[in-house]
Amino acid sequence: xxxxxxxxxxxxxxxxxxxxxxxxxxxxxxxxxxxxxxxxxxxxxxxxxxxxxxxxxxxxxxxxxxxxxxxxxxxxxxxxxxxxxxxxxxxxxxxxxxxxxxxxxxxxxxxxxxxxxxxxxxxxxxxxxxxxxxxxxxxxxxxxxxxxxxxxxxxxxxxxxxxxxxxxxxxxxxxxxxxxxxxxxxxxxxxxxxxxxxxxxxxxxxxxxxxxxxxxxxxxxxxxxxxxxxxxxxxxxxxxxxxxxxxxxxxxxxxxxxxxxxxxxxxxxxxxxxxxxxxxxxxxxxxxxxxxxxxxxxxxxxxxx
Length: 305
Description:
Helix content is 18%, strand content 30%. By secondary structure, the protein is α+β, with helices and mostly antiparallel strands. It folds into 2 domains: 6-95, no CATH class; 104-304, Rossmann fold. Strand 8 (82-87) and strand 9 (93-95) form a beta hairpin. It holds the Pfam family Peptidase_S9.
C-alpha cells in the first residue's frame, strides 16, 4: 500500500507515509521456519512487526489491506482449523469460527513416524497409530530394488517378505502388538501384496483383508511391468498369489467393486482368486460392492469396509 507526494493548492508538497506489508519466513537457529507480518515505512526505513505465528501451529492467512485487518487460519495436530480476525494497530485477535473436531474420538490419538531396517540394510519407515486397544502401522515402505542389470521384480517375493518381517519385528520390539494377533491389509497393489504375504509369510500374520487387487498377473501380460509375460514368464508366475493359492491357510477377506474399471484389477481377479482359495480349502470370503468402481464412493460401501 503506497501513497506518493502530491501538490497542495498553495504549491507545497505533502509527504504521505508509504507502507509495505510483507509476509516473510524467518529462521532461527535450531528452529523451524515460521510466518510473520511486518509493516515498513519506506521514507523512514522503520519497521514494525504487527503479527507473528506462534510457530507451533500451521497458519495461513488472507490480508485485507484497506483497513489492515488480517484473516488467519490456525490448526494443530489435535485442533481443527479455526479462523481469526486480527486488527492493527490495536493488535486485537477475535476468533470468528468454532468448527468442531470432525473425529473427536481420535483427537488425542498417538501417532509416530517410526524408522527401522530390514535384514539387507535398507532403511524403512512407517506411521504408527495407537488408538485404544489397537496398533495400526500405516504406509510402511516396501521397496523392491534391483541391483546392476537385475530387474527389481526378479526378487519381489524375497524383498516383500523381508520388509514385512522388519515391520513386524519393530512393532513387536516396541511392545505394542501381540505377535499372534497381527493382521495385514491393503487396497489395489496393497491387496496384491497382502495375498502374497499370506502365501509366502504365513508366520507373520493371522489373517488378511485384500481390496480390489490383482492376483493373477498372467491376466495383465502387457501392462504389469517393463517386460511382457512372454519375456519374463517365471517372474509373472512367481509374483502371482493366484499361483500360490494352495499355500494360503490363514483367513482372507476379499473385497472388490462390482464395476471396477481399472484394467489391471478387473472384478474377475477376485472372483477367480476366491474360487482358487475355496478349491484348496482356505477360509475365505468374497464381498462384491454393488455399482462400485476401483475406488469406493457410496456411504454404505465406505462404512461397510
